[in-house]
Amino acid sequence: MQRITVISLGRLSEPFYAAGVAEYVKRLGAYCKLEMVELAEEKIDEKAAGEAVIREALDKEAKRILAAVPKGAV
Q: Is the Cβ–Cβ distance between 37 and 9 less than 8 Å?
């Protein structure tokens, strides 16, 4: 059975989005093993954030995403 991992940043804030994702996970469960991985967003002060601060936050998020990729993923 095919394994699919969906990695996302942030949480689904609206209940209807979470319900939609749950419905797709349920429907696709017959065809593949679907795993949803939600990672926390990097917190920055948007008003005082310069380009360097934003770039650093994006780099931290990218490292966390890459760390969440399963071993042997294609």
A: no
Q: Which residues pair with 26 in a beta bridge?
A: none
Buried b (16+ CB within 10 A) or exposed e, 9-20: eeeeeeeeeeee
- Identify whether the C-beta of residue 60 lies closer than 8 Å to the C-beta of residue 42: yes
Q: Is the pLDDT of residue 11 over 90?
A: no
- Decide: 12 and 43 in contact? Cβ < 8 Å: no
Q: Enter the pTM of the model.
A: 0.77
Q: Using alpha carbons, list the distances in angstroms from residue 28 to 9, 16, 23, 35.
A: 21, 18, 9, 11
Helix (H, G, I), strand (E, B) or coil at 66: helix
